[in-house]
Amino acid sequence: MNKKTLHWMMIGASAVMGMLVCWLVAGQVADRMVLHDLNDTVRGQSQLSLATADNIAQIIASDLSMARAIPATLAETPVIQRVLTQAYRLPEKRAAQESERRARLLAVPALRRADAFLHDVRGFAGLDNMWLVDTNGLCVASSDAFERLSCVGVDLAGRGYVKEALLGAYGQMYAVGRVSGENGVFLSAPVYSDGTLVGAIVAKIGLRRLRHWVAAPGSFVADENGVIVMANESRFEGYRLPGARITHMDATQRFDSYRRSSFPVLDIAPLRPRMARSAPWVPAALANQMVELQAAGPPSLYIMRNGINSGFSVHLLTPIALWQHLVDERINIRGLTFAALMGSLLLAATIAASYRREKRHHGEARRLASELQASNAQLSAEARDDALTGALSRRYFLSLLQREIDAARTRGTPLCVAIADLDHFKQINDRFGHTIGDYALEHFVGRCRTVLRATDAIGRLGGEEFAILLPATSLAEGLAVAERIRDTLREERSPRLPDAVDLRVSIGVTGLADDDTLERFISRADRALYNAKAAGRDRAAAFAAHVAVPPSNAAVHR
What we know:
By secondary structure, the chain is an alpha+beta fold. Among the domains are: 75-208, Beta-Lactamase, CATH 3.30.450; 394-543, Alpha-Beta Plaits, CATH 3.30.70. Helix content is 49%, strand content 18%. A hairpin with a 5-residue loop joins β1 (129-133) and β2.
């Protein structure tokens, strides 16, 4: 081997070594640049997902809290107690077939009146169905008694929420109805008469009324057994979460609750093993935050939140928006950096391109941060104020009410809450249209504010129902405020409302008791409103604190 050949071999080896070093350095540069953007993207998207999941969990808790108050309030009404007391004394009914039992029960005048009462309450409260169950678990009256598929005469003793109520507790459970075949949330409350348990009242809310829970893309809701009951993408409904409790139930138990026994698993797998093979440049700490759905699709972020005292869990699965862009960009950066290191002429161009890319990436990060800030501001505004009337939203009002309850107990001052409902509001909507109905709601809130103090508050619970918070106010003073609101509404008409619209309101008022929870407090005010409605509407009624029987806050299941 001559010197010339050896010289060229050394040059070639040096060139190969230089290219290898440049390639390794270019890889490190590309990794650092892309990881910076990936960290910013994951951080911004995680914050937005957390805020969305927390908001959904609070909405679920608020919806179910208000729904639980309905059977709890009705359980305290004399008409329900009287009907179940009579049913308790009826002769034995279980020897007959279901159809025979139904015929016997429908022949009892008092139970037929109870059927009509439950039918009316169901429509007023926005529920799908309501039942009265005797102490043996037999449905003796139902809001669907006059329909083809009726629950009257059906044995409900084996259902979890009925068992809970007949043991003196409050029940709640997601299930599929055996008669209707429709899924929903079942709520139950025990009914006492003179201290004796005479039965239970059960209410059902169909999931079609609760679809707003999964309005956010990638969101889904699972029940306490880990079964997905609602999803933004309906194809995932009926799946189970990995390790769900449903796997420990036998086929009979599964079918009893869900009318099916097989539940495919929604495979949400950690992405770190795949990352170690396909994207080793992603650090383990960052890869641990990512998952993949059904072993396919882009890396995603997975957020789970338990619904506050609801028995449901909220899940949010959102793909990392810039993942493929960043993967492609890493390849480009490495190639360009390698080229820049290999030639001084390309170095300036590569630096300029890198600067432009950096600026674009940082602009994208700032845009995500700005969108996050705007989304948080919008969520905060939506959570506080009702867009139509300007009153406080239901969730914010309930939160404020809880704080005022704690403050009243700390200071030792009285506290009143009132629930107001516009009389015959549906007739106004039906006759004059929803625009006039909206004007009526706005006018009512405006009249309330002319009467209320700066320390008072008014919130919209839903539809034409409002709640009024009166700090440092006794029950007698609260009743007087309610009467002033009624007088003002009657005397000061809105120029935007037709003369034929006679706007009236019924108001229920109650004061805070020493052992009140928020649910008891609201439930008692709702009971006072019911009394005002039952007495003929267009009036205010008070309900003393010591009379109410508080609902339980215990977590229950079917």
